[in-house]
Amino acid sequence: MNVIETPEKSAATKPLVVVSSRTGNTRTVAYAVRDALPGAELVAAEAMPESLSQYDPVILGFWCDCGRAPADMKRAAAKLAGKRVACFATLGGEPDTPRAKDWMMRTSSDLIGDDRGNVLAGTFLCRGRIDPKLSQSMPVTPERAQRWSAAETHPNRMDLIAAAAYFAERFARSTSGSATETA
Ligand SMILES: Cc1cc2nc3c(=O)[nH]c(=O)nc-3n(C[C@H](O)[C@H](O)[C@H](O)COP(=O)(O)O)c2cc1C
């Protein structure tokens, strides 16, 4: 059955995916997330729209830059107020460790802030191939070589499927206006 929504309702429920990506890993995940959410738009962090009134949720995608969120994502996130915000990130290290999960939670919380009325509605983390230029500029310890090699094939097909499923579960049904938010 086709459902005709009022313009106001459609405009109020469009997800926005905002991405920072230096070598393309996070952008690849961002496309999968956008495609999983009906009506979603995808923009680069430095091109975030001035007015965000028609967007909810806002989904921030970024990469681990020396243990921090990249500067363009920090600038974009600082403009968010009163939004449901979800985050995803890629990093070179192992994502399923307490350290990586803690990093993701701290970094996401810092991005949404605690005084702008934003609510953290989900986080997703996966591995991303490390820029060969970075690996060439650092001494190769056995641990590093193992880490770089393990990251080489990511994000892979399973990462993209997992990211799409994660955000669809949280938001896809709520954008149709017919189901409740599950986050
Ligand atoms: C300058 C730089 C710093 C990085 N710092 C870290 C880090 O501290 N920890 C980590 O796990 N990965 C680190 N990485 C790896 C990236 O987070 C990872 O390759 C990511 O997938 C890159 O995303 P992108 O392709 O979207 O730019 C770093 C990569 C670069 C280029």
From TrEMBL:
Protein name as annotated: Flavodoxin-like domain-containing protein
All copies of domain Flavodoxin-like, residue ranges: 16-166
| Source organism of the structure | Sutterella massiliensis
Fetch the InterPro entries from UniProt.
Answer: Flavodoxin/NO_synth, Flavoprotein-like_sf
Q: Which UniProt keywords apply?
A: Flavoprotein, FMN
Query: Gene3D superfamilies from the entry?
Result: 3.40.50.360
**Signal peptide start and end residues:** none
Q: Which domain of life does the UniProt lineage start with?
A: Bacteria
